[in-house]
Amino acid sequence: MSIDREQPGMAPGEGAALCLRDMGAFHVGGAALSLSDLPITKKVLAAGGEPVRMDPNGTYWVGQMYAQYFFPAQPLSSVPLQLWHGGGLTGACWETTPDGRPGWLNYFLRQGWDTYLCDAAERGRAGYAPDHVWGAPISQTAESVFERFRIGEGIHGLDEQGLTQHAFRGGQFPAHAFPSMVRQMVPRWAHTDSVILEAYASLLERTGPSVVVCHSQGGMFGLTLAMAQPDKFRAVVALEPAAVPASSEPGTLYDVPTLIILGDRIETDARWPSIRARIREFAARHPSVDILSLPELGITGNSHMLMMDANSQQVAGLVQQWLARKLLSS
Amino acid sequence: MSIDREQPGMAPGEGAALCLRDMGAFHVGGAALSLSDLPITKKVLAAGGEPVRMDPNGTYWVGQMYAQYFFPAQPLSSVPLQLWHGGGLTGACWETTPDGRPGWLNYFLRQGWDTYLCDAAERGRAGYAPDHVWGAPISQTAESVFERFRIGEGIHGLDEQGLTQHAFRGGQFPAHAFPSMVRQMVPRWAHTDSVILEAYASLLERTGPSVVVCHSQGGMFGLTLAMAQPDKFRAVVALEPAAVPASSEPGTLYDVPTLIILGDRIETDARWPSIRARIREFAARHPSVDILSLPELGITGNSHMLMMDANSQQVAGLVQQWLARKLLSS
Lengths: 330, 330
Known about the structure:
The structure is a homodimer. Chain A is of the alpha/beta class.
């Protein structure tokens, strides 16, 4: 299997029809939760509609997640591949890129993977708990995201000229299309990690052992679950995981084949040098973990949003090659 | 074109591969919004991660919506079909039904429609505004939804036996799978109608004239926009629209071919008799509007969630036949 013969910037098979033997979606995980003793109100829910008595006391489902599945007509492998997004994002980050190119969902589908496109608990089509349960979420400003995702620095507002001017020179993120990425951002919470992990565990219980391609906050979830339930993972590909599992005990086992990919400009970032140090310690302790630092391969300019960068297909190709070497040839 | 020869409960072509010439997603609509003078905090966003300075002052994008598109390899028509969900729901309601059958997305794709699966502004992958902008959303209890969606009455909690016992006898909704529908529910606001309408207008600007299949709150949006911008609509199919456009002036034009579908048990509902009365007035004033009352056709037991009911494929078939008569034969 080689992606080297493909046209640059073009997904394998792009242009040809994508044939699926099935597609659909489901929610999984979470639990029923009852609320009581809250005040009753009346609200008109649609202009011109009848007022509805809103009694918040009763049963909700809380902590579930959402997965869409796309199964190619001619699958490459009996193992499915799952796409787990990062914090403040949804499964949409793996679809069409902000500047309109095919995303990693289409890439891996065209490679023949049975693919699950996930919205973690608390966001996107997964939904989130009533206000009474988790309190108000956090929303991130465009200015902060531009900097923390290592696209550039010092923007104020979203005018295209400012974005292009303040993007890092040689950066791979399509800065002019940054507003389309900002539209993808969703509010998040900072204390729901265990809820999200449980939902992912329920998902894997349903899907069976999988290749998990995960990003940022999702990278942390992927690595953490792979350590706790290695039998549910055939491989983990973590794009710039926001954290690695703490393994204070020297003998802690982690033997899932794992690829951690790092982008560029980590040295000059406020947070990434220490995250990378912990990633390196983690890889040093666990021989099943490979680190792929793109700048060290001569691939420069990648932001935190590797699946959206101008060279996203090239990075996807590296993932596919690593997976082929680790899984498909054995 | 006839669906009558198909096996009952089976979508046309189900079992055969579904071939797409393209699929992807985008966000559209909304506007940048700046917040200032709010307090700054510091939060750890991923367990074991580095604390992040959270400055809520800055730029957000607010009021955008999300659309996934699926374009069959062999389209039926040059006009796309859009699926607009109801209140407290997302595009997921058109996918796999709560009891695991193919939903209307797959049905219309297999009929050959270029299909947009939408999340309206404020929910799902569309995201929602920071807490400072819209305030806290409303969440609906399972007990209230069970009653208001005319599935049954008097449940407390979500145990399967209780659900089956309290479902209306002869009802079409798969009551045992109601928890899977509850997991689909998302919080909503009651004062964002104009934001949502503007986003849908932006979507239609991008997609061009469409057939819009819309439900409940989405039905109200579909009919309202079709009255305001008839050139953007080839047809509207409104499943139990929560409201119809007010047209106090007798000469108000509404000439988009429109089908309004009503389910069963409206007479005994607290709100639906008056909504239906307004729907009938609306249809009486505008000859382009057809009403299809399922019980009057001898199709009984349908809930408010027509696309999830046990006979959802039969109802989809009626929609397809009406569309074929109105559009494809002309």
